[in-house]
UniProtKB/TrEMBL annotation, chains A, B:
This is Bifunctional oligoribonuclease/PAP phosphatase NrnA. It comes from Wansuia hejianensis. InterPro entries: DDH_dom, DHH_sf, DHHA1_dom, Oligoribo/pAp-PDE_c-di-AMP_PDE. PANTHER family: BIFUNCTIONAL OLIGORIBONUCLEASE AND PAP PHOSPHATASE NRNA. Coiled coil: none annotated. Residues 21-154 form the DDH domain.
């Protein structure tokens, strides 16, 4: 974290100490870093008697409901009182707040805490550090700097935030600091074994069925360097699964040794195909996604194509081929 | 590591400093902890000019041949000279050394370094610590205690040893020490991103095919709390795969949320079925394996049944049912 980010954090602490009614929200399509970060900071601020409301921007995946504090996440309503401070975590831009975007203008002050390089700095204060492997690392630092003692509940949320956003401490973004934070969380007694069972050993039968069915659509191109997989509405129906159950399949097919680009096509509607792209070493998939008005990072990006799933596959593979060749 | 293990380590260091010809070996069916530990200590001892030979006890999986020093692993031959010290790593008993077991009696001194609770203490010195998450952690400690500086090659082997034996730092056995060691390895410059690509994003097409095929044999029992999966010789032939490619499938099926016991049956020969068992929270699978003359740990065990694969499945499921009910 550089000097100016450090300064922003100091200013944020002053604001937090000054005001009482604090609201916390994060992005739609919630993930572990988003939920863990919101809950960790909310539990910490309650320890210094702040009046904290954690807002729901989207449906919460069942998988994270084991987290301490998760049942306090609620829809915004006026009775919650005035918004002194609105803390937005893990959210690269205002639109990703969903309906809660509208609350930004009601807040006296907005504190934006994030690790995405694409963050638009929409806050009055912006604690944005792309060198943090997870927003959870920034929340850890904020809590420590405020002198609030970590406890098992806060620690369990931080562990979840960091583990899920780093592929179990394996992504490029991990630093030695990441491991030292985790060491400290283990020392205070965080039950990471139970957390890991909840996070990673909890695949529903429906998700398993969808996984097995979808693997039958695996197709290879360009000497097995490109792989595609399709998930249709018919498959979801057959497996009793939801589209969110497709999560994780792309990481699995990217593991195939010859694969440089993995592509999953999801049939949202007949002529609305959502495409996820992952690369391993060389290809910038954000560039590919951009040519279909999508976006993302070098190794993970996405876009949509408005045609049927077979046609969409042809189009996207055509584009990937140009780059892989 | 308790006082007596610490003392054994001090004695081992004295021996290592006194002698010159050092041989290192580990168990058959090599894994990441075994190979990483052997290579890390071998590279460290070469830095203090010891004459080190790393012995092959079994075929080395291709997946680990990216490790620094891996190409120096060799079969024992007499020309390698007298065995002053024989360091055996990650090996719970002498039989697991395969053919290299015979060399134990040729050695002036045997140093046994391991973290398995079942270790038979077969060495002249026994550095055995079941509280270490990986043998790699003990090797790290030994190298530090000898005052040999870590470098990227040694560190890459230690990272591999520890990561592979802890399911990416997620198993119960992990401690804060584990994460602090990894933090230090990252600080000295270990390229964990490339290591992770090599270890976990390197699934052969044959293995992928075997994985997909075997999933079609998934069967559930007792309200989905028991799951079985079968791998036949026919499947291997069809996928162009080897039985070792079945590695990892059991971890995958254990993830299914309702599952308490996962069981994989491998058809080694027509009437020789090797069985692997994993449990999640409550069941002691070592007890189940023992009733078929097998063994292992509470959460991971194995045995063999001499009948055809369908019959073996009935037998093992019958036994698991008694425990799960």
């Amino acid at each position: 974290m550089n000097k100016s980010t450090n300064h922003q954090m100091d200013e944020a602490i002053k604001l937090i100490l000054q005001y009482n009614n604090i609201f916390i929200a994060s992005h739609i399509n919630p993930d572990g870093d988003n939920i863990g970060s919101m809950l960790a900071i909310s539990l910490a601020l309650r320890k210094i008697n702040k009046n904290v409301s954690v807002l729901k921007s989207d449906v919460l995946p069942e998988d994270f409901m084991f987290l301490p504090g998760s049942h306090d996440i609620q829809e915004y309503k006026e009775e919650l009182g005035p918004i002194d401070i609105f803390i937005v975590v893990d959210c690269s831009d205002e639109d990703r707040l969903g309906n809660n975007k509208a609350l930004l203008s009601n807040a006296k002050k907005v504190i934006n805490i994030d690790h995405h390089i694409s963050n638009t700095m929409f806050g009055d204060l912006n604690i944005v550090d792309p060198k943090s492997a997870a927003t959870g690392e920034l929340i850890y630092k904020l809590i420590k700097k405020m002198g609030i003692s970590l406890d098992i509940d806060i620690g369990s949320n931080l562990y979840t935030a960091i583990s899920t956003d780093t592929g179990k401490f394996s992504y490029e973004s991990v630093t030695s600091r990441t491991h030292r934070i985790i060491a400290e969380l283990i020392d205070i007694g965080v039950d990471f074994n139970t957390i890991n069972l909840n996070l990673y050993e909890n695949m529903s039968i429906e998700k398993t069925k969808l996984f097995i069915q979808s693997l039958s659509t695996l197709k290879f191109y360009e000497g097995n360097s490109i792989v595609t997989l399709k998930i249709t509405k018919e498959m979801l129906k057959h497996a009793g699964a939801k589209m969110e159950d497709a999560e994780g399949i792309i990481s699995f097919i990217r593991k195939i040794e010859s694969v440089e680009v993995a592509c999953v096509l999801k049939e949202i509607e007949m002529n609305n195909i959502k495409i996820s792209l992952r690369s391993k070493r060389d290809v910038d998939v954000a560039l590919i996604a951009q040519s279909f008005d999508g976006g993302g990072h070098i190794r993970a990006a996405g876009c949509s194509i408005n045609s049927n799933i077979e046609e969409a596959e042809k189009e996207i593979v055509g584009k990937i081929r140009e780059v892989v060749r």
